[in-house]
Amino acid sequence: MSPPRPGDAGAPASTLRRLMQALRRDLAVTLGALLALLAWDAGGADLTTARLFGSGRGFVWRDSFWASTVLHDGGRLLSWVTLALLVTAAQRAGTAAQPSRAARWRWITVTLLAALVVPALKRLSLTSCPWELAEFGGVAQYVSHWVPGPGDGGAGHCFPSGHAVAAFAFFGLYFQWRDLDPRRARAWLLGVGAAGLAFGGAQLVRGAHYPSHTLWTAWLCWALCVAAAAVFETRRPPAARTIGVASHHPPRPDDRAMSSPDHPAPAPRWQHDGVRVVPANQLDANTAQTPGMDRKAAINFARVGAQKLWAGTVHIHPDARTGAHHHGALESVIYVINGRARMRWGERLEFTAEAGPGDFIYVPPWVPHQEINASATETLECVLCRSDGEAVAVNLDIEAAEPPQHVAWVDPTHPSPR
User: Fold this and answer.
1) Which has the closest alpha carbon to 210: 131, 115, 320, 135?
2) Are residues 121 and 182 in the same domain?
3) Which of 85, 89, 312, 380 is most solvent-facing, going by the fewest CB within 10 Å?
4) Which long-range contacts (CB under 8 A, 24 or more apart) does 21-26 make?
């Protein structure tokens, strides 16, 4: 589910604050990288670096098997294979712990847009490749790509790097995964960055691009993803779900009149899309999980077509605790059947409260929290309900504050303890 928009009446302050923090962090990284790139260009480091690999006789590595065939041609092939795999994955409905089909297609679109924007800018550029410079055996003169004019005397069309976009265009995978699985998101970020630098390094030693050509391609792809993430995460309304939803029209009076020996009457309306009973021995463990906790789904979209709630059971073993996590935009209600639950929550899990059999626990959207079995001998058994037909569990890496602050239940009918 997408987070609420900033103007939504139902958007909690914590949600908006979290979105704004992510946006500020993204913009800070983008601006910092921009300033570093401008400093690199102003220092003239491109030509100095190119001279490490080229001379008046050209670039020794220009036709190297590893640089030309493996990293150049192979990199382009790897990019197409990766895109094909992403398109294939987008055909399938994701699980609750994975990006939705719509989210996958959105980020595939961003990837394709990056792959189109960079080559389009390259076609407009008057900057020639290093191997065309006179000091490397060509005819062009070195001119910064920011200097307007008729060009450098070469063929031009070399800035930014079109080859590096074969990797950097996939920066969107980091944004696609960072709320669902931060560890996987970081792996994608490191993998895409390393591949892009490898592709750019191959072009550098061949004399096909300056370092800044590769770095500007990385920056353009990153900035495009930051802009897309801001749109997707703060302005996209929740997607309507209609596929597979049972019809809820009242029965038509002529249904039975249409029957005949050759065409039996259809099953009465509501027989298979009305009330559903899910036996205790048929709960589904194939749902989003958090370390330390066993969840089983009873009611969800996949099993009964529920669109606005998820219900199931939770078991936590004696003296065990879950990892820190949140449930995105979902609201959660926990009913304790047996055992004693200790809840911790907050940015550093700095608050705590306990609940016993018969107690209810409410967990608002986006709140980082942790469930703990406060008993060393009893299994903690609970019933869990959430405000959507699909489960969402986003595991977090949080260093917990010790000791936590106990929070008493205080409301108009329960005064603060003295």
Assistant:
1) 131
2) yes
3) 85
4) 22/229, 22/233, 23/230, 23/234, 26/226, 26/229, 26/230
Q: Are 166 and 199 in contact (CB under 8 A)?
A: yes
**Is the same domain home to 213 and 334?**
no
The whole domain housing 344 covers 283-406
Residue found by looking up tokens 């994701």 in the block: 94
Q: Which segment of 20-34, 191-205, 345-359, 402-416 scores lowest on mean pLDDT? A: 402-416
Helix (H) or strand (E) holding 333: strand 332-338
Report the CATH number that the domain containing residue 335 is assigned in CATH. 2.60.120.10
379: helix, coil or strand?
Answer: coil
Both 169 and 93 in one domain: the answer is yes
Structure token pair of residue 6: 């900033």
Q: Which single residue is written with the structure tokens 């259809």? A: 266
Pair (96, 219) in one structural domain = yes
Binned at pLDDT 50, 70 and 90, residue 408 comes out as confident
- Nearest partner of 299 among 324, 322, 282, judged by Cα: 282
State residue 112 phi and psi, 5-degree precision.
-65, -35
Residues 291 and 196 reside in one and the same domain:
no
pLDDT tens across 95-139, in order? Answer: 556 787 888 999 999 999 999 999 999 999 999 999 999 999 999
Bridge partners for 373 per DSSP: 341
241 occurs within a structural domain: no
* Same-domain status, 143 and 213: yes
- Quote the DSSP letter at residue 265: P
The C-alpha atoms of residue 206 and residue 67 are separated, in whole angstroms, by 7
Same domain, residue pair 67 and 180: yes
Q: Does residue 269 lie within any of the structural domains?
A: no
For residues 371 and 354, give the distance between their C-alpha atoms in angstroms, rounded to a whole number.
10
Contact 369, 291 (CB under 8 A): no
Does one domain contain both 187 and 65? yes
